[in-house]
């Protein structure tokens, strides 16, 4: 969601902070701001809209200093206005930036108003800075005042705080929202994401839940939730810095779509041999595979759709029951946990608030073990899970997930086959599946060849406001994902249904103005799906069919055909995803929307 950057150095940090915010734009935001602490006091610029609006203010009225904090805000409490943008102040003494949600902000606000504090915004954040200011009346040291104030907060937060007349340090803390420390030479930094700081350092300390950190030019002092000193290790960032460069592409999303053959190869590398899944990829504790009798998959959004595909694979290949649940629902109900159940989470960022909360709850419920499939090795989800399978997709900048989704599917396929082997899958069948996986990057590359054709098809959506996606079996979750992508970035209202459900209501929507996108792989569901398509065609619906040539479907009146490579049925969900990504991208371009940063959305949903 929101993004934080903080810096202290022996040089002017304003450009460092603004560049950091620019690198966090992909997270989603509606306003931004910077507070600079220099010898004269704490000064701030805030702006609604893109970071460029903030840059314009700096160009007009420069703010220079060797310490500062910065923020991009995604509105929760209060509309996107300059008054609600961060940083927030208490008097002219303290400035603070905050990610997260303070659940008890209303009683705290009443309490602080009774003490004479004046609130200038509608945000929950302003409560924190006034609480710290109030704590300093009895505890003048900023560090101790922050520690005292944080004990009164209920909810999730990552914060950065600067104090007037203290140019030697700033304080940061995290609980429920991500925050990393960037380590430099005679300069140190904090940020919500490593990508924000790659222009100044590649060395990072990952703060744990409840950590409070005192950051100065020459030291980083970390205290845990109990106030005890901690020594956290320094990690070196090993992703390609060029991930933040669009290269030849107009948008990050398209760049990331075209990276999929490469990143799927990276996900498979070292996890399969010529004929087997290498269970060592799950770590030294891969013996859990022999004990799994049930699987619970918990995720949000696109990751949830990947989990839905895995349910088909696990139940088909391993013969084990598998349930898939949205994390925000799972965490608020009483869950029955069968014996020897694997708890499997999926997340691109590893910082999704609901998924993390579900994991923490699951640890108390007697699961066999916890496995995270995630893209970020340093994330909270990875650190808090017993086992991890990294997707190796590299940084994904576009808000609409593409390569993270297909690498999640690839990792889930590896996991499904590994579980199946321990439940009687034959060596011949395992070899067949592994050989199919080895061919996957080439098939994805072949699917990308339809780009030019799909670009032309997208023109037909220029004036559309609704769309219906259909699929059967593993194609139903892919239809859900296709509809999500289209609505995310083109703002076309889209829904997805199992094709067999047409008669149970959705058929009422079909007319000449409703495009119907159908996924038609050549499998044992083909004849039934063709019947569903005839039901649509008979009612004047315009069909967009994605199928391989063996389905014997082709262009005709009201049917626009897009060929998808013919692949092993186990690969169909992954390969059919590619043309739907291309369709949503090109439709969004035709519609003129903000492809990489669609309105109202954030890349990492780090608040509930």
UniProtKB/TrEMBL annotation:
Glutamine amidotransferase type-2 domain sequence ranges: 2-218
An example Gene Ontology molecular-function term: transaminase activity
Cited InterPro entries: GATase_2_dom, GFAT, GFAT_N, GlmS/AgaS_SIS, GlmS/FrlB_SIS, Ntn_hydrolases_N, SIS_dom, SIS_dom_sf
NCBIfam families linked to this entry: glmS, PRK00331.1
Subunit details: Homodimer.
Function field: Catalyzes the first step in hexosamine metabolism, converting fructose-6P into glucosamine-6P using glutamine as a nitrogen source.
Protein's name in the database: Glutamine--fructose-6-phosphate aminotransferase [isomerizing]
Source organism (scientific name): Marinomonas pontica
Organism ancestry: Bacteria, Pseudomonadati, Pseudomonadota, Gammaproteobacteria, Oceanospirillales
């Amino acid at each position: 969601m929101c993004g934080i950057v903080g810096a202290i150095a022996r040089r002017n940090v304003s450009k460092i902070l603004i560049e950091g915010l620019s690198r966090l734009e992909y997270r989603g935001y509606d306003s931004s701001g910077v507070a600079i602490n220099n010898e004269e006091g704490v000064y701030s610029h805030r702006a609604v809209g893109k970071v460029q609006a903030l840059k314009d203010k700096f160009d007009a009225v420069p703010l220079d200093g060797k310490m500062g904090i910065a923020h991009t805000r995604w509105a929760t409490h209060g509309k996107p206005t300059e008054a609600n943008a961060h940083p927030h102040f208490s008097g002219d003494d303290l400035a603070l930036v905050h990610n997260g949600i303070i659940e008890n902000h209303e009683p705290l606000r009443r309490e602080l108003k009774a003490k004479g504090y004046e609130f200038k915004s509608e945000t929950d954040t302003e409560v924190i800075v006034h609480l710290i200011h109030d704590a300093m009346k009895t505890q003048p040291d900023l560090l101790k005042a922050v520690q005292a104030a944080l004990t009164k907060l209920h909810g999730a937060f990552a914060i950065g705080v600067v104090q007037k007349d203290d140019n030697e340090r700033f304080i940061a803390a995290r609980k429920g929202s991500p925050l990393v420390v960037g380590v430099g030479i005679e300069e140190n930094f904090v940020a919500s994401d490593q990508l924000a700081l790659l222009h100044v350092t590649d060395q990072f300390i990952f703060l744990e839940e409840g950590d409070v950190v005192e950051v100065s030019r020459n030291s980083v002092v970390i205290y845990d939730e109990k106030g005890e000193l901690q020594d956290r290790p320094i990690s070196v960032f090993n992703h390609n810095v060029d991930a933040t460069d669009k290269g030849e592409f107009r948008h990050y999303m398209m760049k990331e779509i075209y990276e999929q053959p490469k990143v799927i190869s990276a996900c498979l590398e070292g996890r399969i041999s010529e004929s087997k899944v290498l269970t060592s990829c799950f770590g030294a504790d891969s013996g859990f595979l022999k004990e799994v009798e049930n699987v619970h998959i918990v995720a949000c959004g696109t990751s949830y759709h990947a989990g839905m595909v895995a349910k088909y694979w696990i139940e088909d290949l391993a013969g084990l029951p598998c349930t898939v649940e949205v994390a925000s629902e799972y965490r608020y109900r009483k869950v029955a946990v069968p014996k020897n159940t694997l708890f499997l989470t999926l997340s691109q960022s590893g910082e999704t608030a609901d998924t993390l909360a579900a994991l923490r709850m699951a640890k108390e419920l007697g699961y066999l073990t916890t496995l995270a499939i995630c893209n970020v090795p340093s994330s909270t989800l990875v650190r808090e899970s017993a086992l991890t399978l990294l997707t190796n997709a590299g940084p994904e900048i576009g808000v609409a997930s593409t390569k993270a989704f297909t690498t999640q599917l690839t990792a889930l396929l590896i996991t499904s086959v590994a579980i199946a082997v321990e439940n009687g899958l034959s060596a011949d069948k395992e070899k067949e599946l592994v050989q199919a996986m080895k061919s996957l990057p080439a098939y994805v590359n072949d699917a990308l060849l339809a780009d030019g054709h799909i670009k032309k098809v997208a023109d037909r959506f220029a004036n559309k406001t609704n769309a219906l996606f259909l699929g059967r079996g593993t194609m139903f979750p892919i239809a859900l994902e296709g509809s999500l992508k289209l609505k995310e970035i083109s703002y076309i209202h889209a829904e997805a249904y199992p094709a067999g459900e047409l008669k149970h209501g959705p058929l009422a929507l079909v007319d000449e103005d409703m495009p119907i996108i159908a996924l038609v792989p050549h499998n044992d569901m083909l004849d039934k799906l063709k019947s569903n398509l005839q039901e649509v065609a008979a009612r004047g619906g315009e069909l967009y069919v994605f199928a391989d040539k063996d389905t014997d479907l082709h262009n005709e009146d009201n049917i626009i055909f897009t060929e998808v490579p013919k692949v092993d049925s186990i690969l169909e969900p992954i390969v059919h995803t590619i043309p739907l990504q291309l369709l949503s991208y090109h439709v969004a371009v035709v519609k003129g929307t903000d492809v990489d940063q669609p309105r109202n959305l954030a890349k990492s949903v780090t608040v509930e």
